[in-house]
Write a structure and sequence with these properties.
This protein is α/β, with parallel strands linked by helices. The chain has helices at 7-19, 22-29, 33-47, 63-87, 101-108, 112-118, 172-177, 198-206, 221-229, 243-247, 277-293; strands spanning 52-55, 58-61, 93-99, 122-128, 142-147, 154-168, 188-192, 214-218, 235-238, 252-253, 259-270. The chain is built from 11 helices and 11 strands. Strands 3, 4, 5, 6, 9, 10 and 11 form a 7-stranded mixed sheet that branches. A two-stranded antiparallel ribbon has the order 1-2. A two-stranded parallel sheet has the order 7-8. The chain starts with 6 loop residues before the first helix and ends with a helix. Residues 5-62 form the HTH lysR-type domain. Keywords: DNA-binding, Transcription, Transcription regulation. It comes from Belnapia mucosa.
Length: 295
């Protein structure tokens, strides 16, 4: 049997390589920084290779250390996946995905039959919420985030650009067009409380001066959608969320103005998780769906 390095030392090395810090690795492993440092030095002694360059209190992976860290992270990822598969339905792998509620309802869920057909061995567990996932604390494999696409330690797969459009019940566009652009200010504006400046920015982009006469506020974009669908006013949403409702003539885009702000929606996961086959399969699939929706 091949002799493996001490597993505790491997765990310590992988954690330090990922965090770039003895203290953060120690916190994750529930041991002292001294113990983590001792494990790493023990591993270097066993391997007869310097894995880190030490400059003062800073640690930086050597070239051999970087290659080894990638392989070790991949190996641990495969162990995690094998364990999840053992706990789940025989022959299947569980994959936890966290995203915004409206993203799930309006974009992801309608497409999931395609993923299930392509990967019947992967069981998805979906959760929703507005706050960002803490991958070190939460049992989540992939999350959807809004932003510029750069988050330390995470692999980000771009899905689509932030493009806000105004929408309302059928007939709203023609009614407003007959009275000129400023007529929109007489409508009831349905506002998402977490993004209160969206309407002001959209109005500036449209070249419309003034403030709406009436507002109705909600703390969840899913409720904004429901209020617009029930005819309570007009709202703002991602352009890509509207396609099915426009096709079914349930809702309509009421203006050609599109608010773009250089941000977007990304599927993100820790770098080591991206090497796992189930995570890679989901990221490739969801990126393909996003690209197909552009054509």
């Amino acid at each position: 049997m091949r002799r493996l390095p001490p597993l505790n030392a491997l765990k310590a090395f992988e954690s330090v390589a990922r965090h770039g810090s003895l203290a953060r690795a120690a916190e994750e492993l529930s041991v002292t920084p001294t113990a983590v440092g001792r494990h790493v030095r023990n591993l270097e002694d066993v391997l007869q290779v310097s894995l880190f360059e030490r400059e003062g209190g800073a640690l930086r992976l050597t070239q051999p250390g970087r290659r080894y860290a990638q392989s070790v992270a991949q190996a641990f990822g495969q162990i995690v996946e094998a364990t999840d598969a053992l706990r789940a339905t025989p022959g299947r792998v569980r994959l936890a995905v966290h995203a915004y509620t409206t993203f799930l309802v309006r974009w992801l869920i309608p497409r999931l039959s395609s993923f299930h057909a392509r990967h019947p061995e992967i069981e998805l567990a979906l959760s929703s919420g507005y706050d960002s996932v803490d991958f070190e604390r939460d049992r989540v494999d992939v999350a959807v985030r809004y932003g510029h696409g750069r988050w330390a330690g995470l692999v980000a797969t771009r899905l689509f650009e932030d493009e806000l459009v105004a929408f309302g019940p059928p007939g709203t566009r023609d009614r407003l067009a007959a009275d000129g652009p400023e007529a929109i200010l007489r409508e009831t504006f349905i506002i998402h409380q977490r993004r209160p400046q969206d309407w002001a920015e959209w109005l500036r982009t449209a070249g419309i001066e003034g403030r709406p006469q009436r507002k109705l506020e909600f703390d969840d974009l899913a409720l904004v959608w429901q209020a617009v669908a029930d005819g309570l006013g007009i709202g703002l949403t991602q352009r890509r969320y509207l396609a099915a409702d426009i096709a079914a003539q349930r809702l309509e885009q009421i203006s050609d103005t599109v608010l773009r702000r250089g941000r977007g929606y990304y599927a993100v996961c820790p770098a080591e998780a991206a090497m796992r086959p189930s995570v890679r399969a989901f990221l490739d699939w969801v990126a393909g769906e996003a690209a197909a929706a552009e054509h």
